[in-house]
Write a structure and sequence with these properties.
about 290 residues, alpha/beta, Neutral Protease, domain 2, 3 domains, about 60% helix
């Protein structure tokens, strides 16, 4: 069925929301949240339409579409998703309803093409607008046996990371900053599967980015190792000082429409600019090699 025809109602609702924003004095944050959720649903439907010829398996909380790979690989992705579903949902205080769509691509080129990316991008997984897209382990484990692929995918693969992104997105209705969700996603995968990215140099650690830089141009920062490491350390500091429940408290405030600064003020008593200073002091005193 034609995509536009099959989604007429959703498109109509989005138009009404946009017109309401322009016509009536209503709560902008609520309208923004509803609008984002509508766009996310529309994007999910479009991607489902674009992959209509893919094979599909599903069970419990996940639906996995795949092409150009063995069914056993799709089953591995499905199984791994189920293993991380409860721990991540409990950590963040939110369990998504319905089947979570996952699409597995056989090659890096196929994954990049699905986003319209050009060049040599090499993501193993990406969460975007309601759907998790995964690079099949065959693409980064050439010649490995099915057993070796299973072990590597469960201990190095992106499912925990990308599912954490999805939970943050749904719980907050799309209201979050990039560094915050990247820190949470890294924390989840570190706790669940023990995977961590390469760390930046000691010199780089002593000169972290401002959170405003990471919020606006995370991917454009020249030291990506520092950007990701700093985001993880920020979340680890919050959990160490305030217990894991602090993440749920902050996410709850974001879900109400507060920006991250206001969420920090309400939950912690200070904003992200002050937190930046606190984090710098913590890194210099506790995480650098010359720290006492």
């Amino acid at each position: 069925m034609d995509f536009i025809t099959s989604n007429k109602l959703l498109i109509f609702i989005l138009i009404i929301i946009l017109l309401s924003m322009l016509t009536f004095a209503i709560d902008f944050n609520k309208v923004k949240a509803y609008g984002y959720q509508g766009l996310r649903s529309l994007h999910k439907s479009y991607l489902d339409y674009k992959t209509a010829d893919f094979y599909q398996i599903e069970k419990n909380n996940f639906s996995v579409k795949y092409t150009g790979i063995p069914k056993e690989t799709a089953q591995l992705v499905l199984e791994t998703g189920q293993e991380v579903f409860n721990p991540v949902s409990e950590l963040l205080g939110y369990a998504p309803s319905g089947k979570i769509p996952v699409i597995v691509y056989p090659t890096k080129e196929a994954l990049n093409k699905s986003f319209g990316w050009e060049g040599d991008k090499s993501a193993m997984g990406v969460y975007w607008m309601g759907t998790i897209r995964i690079l099949a382990p065959e693409a980064w484990l050439e010649g490995a046996s099915q057993e070796e692929k299973a072990v590597a995918f469960k201990t190095m693969g992106p499912m925990a990371h990308e599912f954490a992104h999805l939970v943050v997105d749904y719980k907050t209705k799309g209201n979050y900053t990039r560094w915050f969700t990247e820190g949470i996603a890294q924390y989840a995968e570190k706790e669940l599967i023990g995977f961590i990215l390469d760390e930046p140099t000691q010199k780089a650690k002593a000169n972290i980015y401002s959170f405003s830089q990471l919020d606006s141009t995370f991917d454009d920062q020249p030291d990506q190792e520092l950007a990701y490491w700093q985001s993880l350390v920020a979340i680890e500091y919050l959990i160490e000082k305030y217990q894991p429940e602090v993440l749920q408290d902050l996410l709850n405030e974001l879900a109400l429409g507060n920006n991250l600064d206001n969420a920090f003020r309400k939950v912690l008593g200070y904003d992200t600019l002050e937190f930046e200073s606190i984090l710098k002091e913590y890194i210099n005193e506790s995480l650098l090699e010359n720290a006492a």
